[in-house]
């Protein structure tokens, strides 16, 4: 009995097919780890090196005047995406009044030979990250992380340029939701990318933006023929764009999003449009005005809980009156809403139907209005997408649309 109990023949043995399956899975996992190490290991190590002289790079020179789009400062980035080259740039642009300003950003281009005529330039407009200088994406660890669809864009052969906008990264006036300044930032970033010989950037341009960046991309498309006529805007794509600011504000007058976004926007407008009577005392309560410095010092993504904590006491008590019907704020919101001008490039508009920030009906109405103005508009609603996920969930449809446009 004991001998039978201890006999090896009586011990359970793994089935040969099961062992082979485990072996295949183990090998696949080892290979995946190896691929990730090759792709991301140098990038993470390089990011650490790129952070060492960060403050010096963003110090503005005494003189900022110069040709819009010309590069003031440039440095190669060690933590670049796989199979690509990248640079951090400081370049010249202009604000809503035409005054010279500086902006910062990054340029990324794939390795390999460029096509005849140069690569298409994809100008990315990032969603709200804050308004403080430290909230600029190019100053962060891994400045490419939030360029939505970057891998797909590089694989298409695009040179990608991502601006921080004026007033972020490098010192300058606030420009949050100021359409003209944002447009100039994007278009001059394209010019700066074209000035980098290794980027092989041509005159063909695709504009792609999310939320705040959607507003920037739309304004850039509207102003390109007069502001940067040497560029050819071949396609414009936006995800949950801050296109109609009146409806955006109206939807959030009495909630924490209104207090948070309003803290950025109304301080910006008060600074930029002071000469037009944009006095915060005419639109924000004393409690709202009191929290503005603290709110504007924080970044949206990394400090969201703290922002909401500070804003909570003034929710429902942020505005003295409805800014969409109170002057000069109502006019300023209209002027900084997209759609006043049409453009020739085809337009792709993605909108998440679970979005609680940019109201889906507002985006649908915007797309319909542009179509009625004779524009080529593709409206792409996504049932399960919210404000944070819409751009990523739109990438498959976006790529198919870009293929159809031949860019």
TrEMBL record:
SUPFAM superfamilies: alpha/beta-Hydrolases (SSF53474)
Pfam families, per database record: LIP
Domain of life: Bacteria
Xref: InterPro entries: AB_hydrolase_fold, Lipase_secreted
Keyword tags: Membrane, Transmembrane, Transmembrane helix
Recorded GO MF terms: triacylglycerol lipase activity
Statement: the UniProt record of this protein carries the keyword Transcription: no
Residues that span the membrane, as ranges: 21-41
An annotated GO BP: lipid catabolic process
Name of the molecule in the record: Secretory lipase
Source organism: Microbacterium keratanolyticum
């Amino acid at each position: 009995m004991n001998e039978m109990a201890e006999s090896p023949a009586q011990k359970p043995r793994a089935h040969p097919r099961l062992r082979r399956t485990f072996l295949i899975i183990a090998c696949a996992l080892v290979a995946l780890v190896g691929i990730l190490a090759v792709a991301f290991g140098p990038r993470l190590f390089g990011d650490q090196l790129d952070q060492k002289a960060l403050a010096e790079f963003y110090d503005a020179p005494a003189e900022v005047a110069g040709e819009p789009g010309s590069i003031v400062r440039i440095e190669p980035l060690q933590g670049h995406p796989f199979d690509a080259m990248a640079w951090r740039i400081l370049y010249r642009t202009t604000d809503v009044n035409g005054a010279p300003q500086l902006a910062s950003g990054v340029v990324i281009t794939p390795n390999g030979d460029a096509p005849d005529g140069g690569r298409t330039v994809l100008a990315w407009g990032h969603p709200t990250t804050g308004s403080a200088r430290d909230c600029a994406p190019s100053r962060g660890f891994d400045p490419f992380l939030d360029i939505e669809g970057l891998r797909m864009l590089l694989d298409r052969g695009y040179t990608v340029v991502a601006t921080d906008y004026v007033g972020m990264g490098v010192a300058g006036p606030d420009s949050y939701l100021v359409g003209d300044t944002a447009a100039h930032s994007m278009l001059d970033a394209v010019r700066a990318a074209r000035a980098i010989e290794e980027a092989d950037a041509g005159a063909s341009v695709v504009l792609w933006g999310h939320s705040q960046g959607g507003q920037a991309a739309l304004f850039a498309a509207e102003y390109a023929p007069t502001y940067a006529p040497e560029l050819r805007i071949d396609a414009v794509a936006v995800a949950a764009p801050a296109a109609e600011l009146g409806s955006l504000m109206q939807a959030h007058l009495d909630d924490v999003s209104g207090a948070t976004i309003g803290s950025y926007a109304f301080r910006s407008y008060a600074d930029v449009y002071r000469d037009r009577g944009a006095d915060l005392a005419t639109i924000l309560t004393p409690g709202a005005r009191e929290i503005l410095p603290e709110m504007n010092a924080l970044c949206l993504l990394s400090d969201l809980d703290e922002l909401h904590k500070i804003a909570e006491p003034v929710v429902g008590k942020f505005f003295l009156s409805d800014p969409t019907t109170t002057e000069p704020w109502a006019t300023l919101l209209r002027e900084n809403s997209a759609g006043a001008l049409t453009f020739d490039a085809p337009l792709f508009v993605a909108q998440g139907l679970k979005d609680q920030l940019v109201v889906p009906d507002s985006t649908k109405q915007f797309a319909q209005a542009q179509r009625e103005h004779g524009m080529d508009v593709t409206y792409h609603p996504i049932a399960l997408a919210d404000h944070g996920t819409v751009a990523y969930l739109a990438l498959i449809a976006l790529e198919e649309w870009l293929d159809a446009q031949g860019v």
